[in-house]
Each structure stands twice: as structure tokens, then as C-alpha cells.
Amino acid sequence: MIDLTRPPETYPHSVRAARPSRIINAGRTAMARNRERYEIPGRGAIMISVREGDQLGLRNCEGMQTVELVGLTTAGKPCPGIFDQMPYGAPQGLMELLNAPFDNSLGRFAQTLRRRDIRLEDCRAQRLFGNGSPPGDTVEMTVHLDGFVIIATPAPLMQIDAHNTATPITALVKRAHHSDSYSFALPDPLADPVLDLRVKTATAESYFVKAGDYIQIQDVDGRQCTDFQCFAARKLDKGIEHALDVTTTRTLQGHAYPMPGLHGKYYDQDMLPLVEVIQDTCGRHDAFALACAAKYYDDIGYPGHANCSDNFNGALAGHGVSARAGWMAINFFFNTGIDAHGVMYADEPWSRPGDYVLLRALTDLICVSSACPDDTTPANGWNPTDIHVRTYSGAQTFQRSVAIRATPDSEPKMTKATGFHDSFARYTRNFIEYEGYWLANCFAAAGPLEEYWACREKCVVLDLSPLRKFEITGPDSEALCQYVFTRNIKKLAVGQVVYSAMCYPHGGMIDDGTLFRLARDNFRWIGGSDYSGEWIREKAAELGLNVLVRASTDMQHNVAVQGPNSRDLLKEIIWTAPHNPKLDELGWFRFTPARIGNEQGVPVVVSRTGYTGELGYEVFCHPKHAGAVFDAIWQEGQAHDIRPMGLEALDMVRIEAGLIFAGYDFSDETDPFEAGIGFTVPLKSKPDDFIGREALIRRKETPARKLVGLEIDGAVDVAHGDAVHIGRARIGEVTSSMRSPLLGKNIALARLDVSHAALDTRVEIGKLDGLQKRLPATVVPFAHYDPKKTRPQS
To answer: Is 546 buried (19+), middle (13-18) or exposed (0-12) by CB count in 10 A?
Structure first.
């Protein structure tokens, strides 16, 4: 017998008491089930139901954000006594948000108010936080009456040359009447449901959906799979049992499984489209395996186990559908993959409580959904739970979107259109999701090759609004920037821009981007990821610095005007104040506040920066002015042969110019020297300490890899990740590649072992299995096009 009072380390290994596995979960998966978390963006609002005894906590995430709190009865009438604090007056800030003519982001919230006949002018609100509120400031209160609470984050429109951005508030609700043994609270419906159906664990339910209506399939508790199948109802009426066919779908769509966007439909075996994917907050599903079947459980030693195929048979029998031993299906939330050896593997789902997929019926459908009963593998997180299905009228409008999260603990944010979206949509429907926004991929009238040549020879305009912007302000802002960025920020003048890296302590890169200095204590960081801002904010808190770091991405959208004609175009429409440089006087990596047309025109900020290797500028404005800014550029651009440009052509010009891209040319395992931007780490001229300095000194002294250019013999395409060899040995990999129209060559960027990175070294790129087919290549100077950057400086 084991003595449980005896210290475990004193026992021999064979008799030590078992210890639970240590697992760190993130986000809602890690929360108690009586807790709910909501993120209200700046200039946003939500309404949540509450009951007496509930605890409401509000956190001012980035500081200086005002909150208006409105209490309502269960009937939607004013209820000022729902909290202890006395309300101060009408929710003026919220009413101004709802009346903003340019912004429809609160359209669905406004519909909710109208549907419930809630009159804000009759309500009273508490005003919390404000301009003096520091980052992380919190307020906690107890709910005294059943009802609803509106949480609004009013703020003025951000001035493009200032820092008065609106920022998010996090609300945490601790329910007094919800046991931790129950399910998570089901999120509110996206609209008034036509059908509200709970699919209990280890069961399946069938349902009819009219053409044009929407189907929302929701994981209630997280990490639960659901098989989905559907039939065209008119075919079933004729006795034709053509179910959704995932093999046909994969073939037609060219994807493992469709996602919202251009390629987002599922088909039957006759190639009839049945459903379109409109929204997806999980992003990880399976379209290879059958729904679990009796034979599967029999073969692994669980005869008689409940299974989705038998449950499908039972649910579909009433519709005259023949039983099948195993059902092909879309396995939503099922986390599978195929490894390099062709082995199919499965693990716990990525889905979190409340995650969902929203489909649109393209014809009348008979559908069936299961709540998978598998408790023998991690497929359902070892704990099968329920699935919830809602359908909505086709009269509703839902935007195509996927969810992204800045950190594992962040609430999901759905894909949005930029302020310039409608302007670019006049010329293309080919948009793809990029970092939470829809961006034009290419333009059908021209195509990427014509867009490429327009950038090299004339001028183009492209949307770069998804670049993340952060306002860094306060008396310690320079000290913070000097510590988190690799460049010497003390040398950065007001009106100047510097390109910099941001590194972890081990020297690996977090992000690259540009830092603008607007005043002595005012900076603006423009990078590629939300996490870079989170990191800066974390470091400021750790150091106890008097500085604010606030996101302003949604307050500042930007287009790039690039190409040899860009200066001549913009100087005709950009007005600057007498104390600022004119457009044609603006130096490389400089910026200026400006206006479109004249001193009464739309306010903008213009920087002489770009991502093309050509002379070029970026124009920043508030989203409400984006249409006017685009129209001014486009109208004047006709005299300069302007073309719209998408991401395909942008990738071509940036590879030629040797401009690196996150996730391809660098990662958190890559230091700036290995990424080809060692010039951003001035170790000799920057004596001050910064994050990663010691590691970067060591890495520079003992380099292991180097980013180089490759010229490839022949026109066979190579891809990111292709191995580079000398003989049998693998000495590196391709990071980016293209066929260069200007150079007439197949070129690539590659990271090689330093012992084989010398110019003119002959290497081979492995295709197929890396051995059966090789492409000879030569190491050449980096970058391939204009390595001295004479064109953007011209």
C-alpha cells in the first residue's frame, strides 16, 4: 500500500502516486462555465442579459476609454437601479455613435433596440473611466435586478495626425445562477432564429432549410465535433439520394475544405452546389474521413458504441433516405491532418465554447447534424457534449468572414471590409482574407502581370489598411521605443520614419515595421500583427513606464500609391501647410500631415514609404474619408496611367526588391541578420540596451544561416519551404519565389547555411521527394532588383 502522506520523491519510480497531466488551456476553454467574457471595441456597444446577483467587471484594456452603462428591465424599459451607482444622464455618447452616418458597424445593435422598442432618449447611463483612466483600470459591480445591460464605448472620431483613438473594453460576467457543471451559456443568436435546435450529445437531428436561409452550427462547450450532411430536397422528392459529396467539393474548390470567401461551396456528386460557407470562427475541420460508424468502434474494442452514422440513419429515415453503414459528411470542428508520411492523424478540436460555422442554403435542403459520441479518443476533448443549430431567414444579411485572435486568450474578431473596400470592389470581386480584412487579390480586367508592369513603369494604388497601427504616447514613450525596437530611436527626428525589427530576448523576430515620430513624446508603430502591440504594452507595464499603447488600426486606413509616376500624381492633389514640406519635397522615409486638394480638404497623413521597391507613398486617412481619398487619387491618376493593384502583383514586386514577409522570410526562430535586415540592428551606434541585444550580439558573431538570392535554371515553379541541397545534404530552404517578368528569370529568396551562402555557389532545389527531381540554381546578390534602393530614393 502507498502511504499518501509520504513525499512522492522518496518512493521508487515504480510506486510513485500518479500525478495529473499539466495542461495549459487558453481563452474560454480555460474559463469556469459560470463566467462569460465580452470584448466591446472602441466606438462599439453590446447588450447582455443579467440576473440579480450577477457580478459584472469592466476592464479598460488600453486606457483612456470612456464607458457608458445603461440598465434596462426584462421588458426593455429604463432601469437606473440595476446597479448601486447613480446614472448621470442620457447616454449621449451611445446615441451619437448610432447616428454616425458613415459607420454601420452598430447596425445589428440598432436593429435589436428597435425590435425591443428601447428608446435611449428615455434612459439614463452611468459614465465610467474616461481620459484619466490608465491601462488595465477595472470596475466591478453587482447586479440588483433581472434585466439587460448595455455597455457602450463612445469616442470622437480619431484625428489622423493625432492619437485620440478609441480602444476596447473587456466585460467579464460571473453568473450567480449558473452551476459550473452546466454547459457554457449559449451566445445570443445572430438574428431572430427560424429554427432553434439543440442536438444532444451522442444524437443526431434532421431539419429542413429553405433556399437562401442560413444555418448556424455551434459548438456549445468547445472541442466537440459535429457531422453535417444535406440533400437537395427536390431530388429527394424524386427518390434521388445525392448527399453532399466532399470528394467532389475538394476537386472543384481545390481546398481540403471550403472556407468563407471566393472558394466556399459544398457540392453533391452531380456538382450541384448545396451550401456556401459564410462565416467560420474555428477554421479547422475535416472533409476526408467518414462520420464515425459501428465498424470503427467494433474494430477498436467498443462493440455497440453509439455512432454518428447510425444516428444519421435514424434521423433521416423519416425522409425516406436509405441507411448506410458509414456516412460521408462534413466533420465540422474535427481536427485532422495528413502528415508527411501520408498518415491521417486526429487531435482535440480547435473550437472553443460558442465557436460556429454559418452556411447559406443554395437550394431547399434536408439537413442532418450530429453531436459526435466519440469518447475513446481526443476527437471531442475526451468529453462529448452538445451541438446547437439555428437557422435564419434569407432576408438577413451576413458578411463573409473568419475569426482571428491577437493572442490565444483574445476574443475572436471577424473579417471586416476596409474603408477602401467599396472603391476597389468597383474593379474586382476577387478578394481574399488577409489579417482580418478582405483585400483585393487581383483585378480581372488586367490581372497580376499588368498590375506588376504598371507598378514598375507607371503607378498603382493598393489597399494596405490591414497593417496594424499603435499609438505610443507619454513622457516615457521614447524610452519604451528605445527598449522594444532594434533601431536607435533617439536619433529619430519629428516627421521621420524608421524601418525596424522587434525581437524576443532570444533574438527571434516578433515583427518588422515602421515607426513614425509625430512629436517628442508621440510615436506611431505600423507593423504586421496585433501581437506586436500587445508585446509593446506588456513591456511598458513590466517596466512601470508612464506611457500609453493604444491600437488605432480601425481608425486609420491607408492606400499605397507606388511607381515612377506616383510623385507627379500626388503633388497635384496633396496640400500641405506652409510649415510642412510639399509633396515633391518629402524625403525618403519622411511623412507629413496634409489634406486632399486644399486647406479645407480631407485630412490625411502622407509618408514616402512603400513595399514595392519603387518610388512611392502611403496615404493614411480615417475610414469615413477613404472613398473621397480614393476618388481623388483615381481621378488624377487617369493622367498618369494608374492601375489598381492586388496582393498577387504586390508579392511579385516585393520578392524582386528583396522585401521580407512574415511567415515566409522570417519567423520567431529567425533573427534580423538571418532575415536579411541586419541593418536594423545597429549594435555599434546604439549603446542602449534593447530586447534581444545580448542574443543578437552572439548570433552576429556566430552566424548560422543567411538570406540570399537564387537564380534558378529553368521555368519550373518553386515554392516556400522547398529544400535547397548540395549533393544529398540539405543546406537550406526557399522562403519566397517568383518568375520575374523584368529579369526574365525564375528567382527566389532562400535561407542557407552560411558555409554555402557565398555568391556564385551552385545549389539544387529539391522537388517531388527532394531527390528524384532537382532544379539547379546559383546564389546571387540580394536583392535581385535595385539592390542599392536607388529607385525609391529617386
So the answer is: middle
Nearest CA-CA partner of 190 in 362, 370, 389: 389
Cα torsion angle, 652, 655, 656, 657, sign: positive
CA distances from residue 131 to 59, 63, 537, 632 in whole angstroms, order as listed: 14, 8, 18, 36
Q: What percent of the chain has pLDDT over 70?
A: 96
Task: Report pLDDT digits (tens) over 692-719.
Answer: 999 999 999 999 999 999 999 989 999 9
Query: What whole-number distance in Å separates Cα of residue 173 and Cα of residue 56?
Result: 5
Q: With contact defined as beta carbons under 8 Å apart, do 290 and 329 qualify?
A: yes
Q: pLDDT averaged over the chain? A: 93
Q: pLDDT value at position 162?
A: 79
Alpha carbons 39 and 42: distance in angstroms, whole number: 10
Give the separation between CA 63 and CA 166, rounded to whole angstroms: 10
- φ/ψ of residue 676, rounded to 5: 80, 15
Over residues 631-649, the pLDDT tens digits come to 999 999 999 999 999 999 9
d(CA 354, CA 216): 11
Does residue 195 surpass a pLDDT of 50? yes
Question: What are 275's three cell numbers?
Answer: 451550401
Q: Which residues of 310-322 are buried (b: 16+ CB within 10 A; e: fewer)?
A: bbbbebbeeeebe
Let me know the angle formed at the C-alpha of 411 by 203 and 124, rounded to the nearest 5 degrees.
105
Q: Which residue has the cell 536583392?
A: 783
Residues 6 or more apart in contact with residue 457 via CB below 8 angstroms: 563, 564
**Integer Cα distance of 450 and 454 in angstroms:** 6
Instruction: Give the other-Cβ count within 10 Å of 766's Cβ.
Output: 20
Question: In the chain, count of helices (H) and strands (E)?
Answer: 14, 43
pLDDT tens track for 259-310: 998 779 999 999 999 999 999 999 999 999 999 999 999 999 999 999 999 9
- Cell readout for 702 is 556566430
As to burial, measured by CB atoms within 10 angstroms (0-12 exposed, 13-18 middle, 19+ buried), residue 282 is buried
Q: What is the phi/psi pair of residue 776, to 5°?
A: -65, 145
Task: State the pLDDT at residue 567.
Answer: 98
The SS3 of residue 470 is strand
Q: Which of 215, 207, 209 is nearest to 189 (CA)?
A: 215
* CA–CA dist 662, 531 (Å, integer): 13
pLDDT at position 714: 87
Question: What is the reported pTM?
Answer: 0.91
Q: What is the pLDDT of residues 12-22, one digit of tens each?
A: 555 555 677 77
Judge whether residue 30 has pLDDT over 70: no
Cβ atoms within 10 Å, residue 73: 14
Neighbouring C-beta atoms of residue 758, cutoff 10 Å: 11
Higher-pLDDT residue of 30 and 447 is 447
Nearest to 615 by CA among 578, 651, 571: 571
Backbone φ and ψ for 482, nearest 5 degrees, come out as -65, -30
The average pLDDT across 49-70 equals 93
**Cβ–Cβ < 8 Å for 419, 557:** yes
CA distance 346 to 284: 11
User: Do the strands 705-712 and 745-753 form a parallel or antiparallel pair, or are they unpaired?
Assistant: antiparallel
Pick the closest to residue 161 from 645, 484, 517 (CA basis): 517
Dump pLDDT digits (tens) for 337-384: 998 889 999 999 999 999 999 999 999 999 999 999 999 999 999 999
Question: To which H or E segment does residue 235 belong?
Answer: helix 233-237
- Candidates 319, 321, 351, 322; CA nearest to 335 is 351
- Residue 775 C-alpha cell reads as 532544379
Longest dimension (CA), the chain: 90
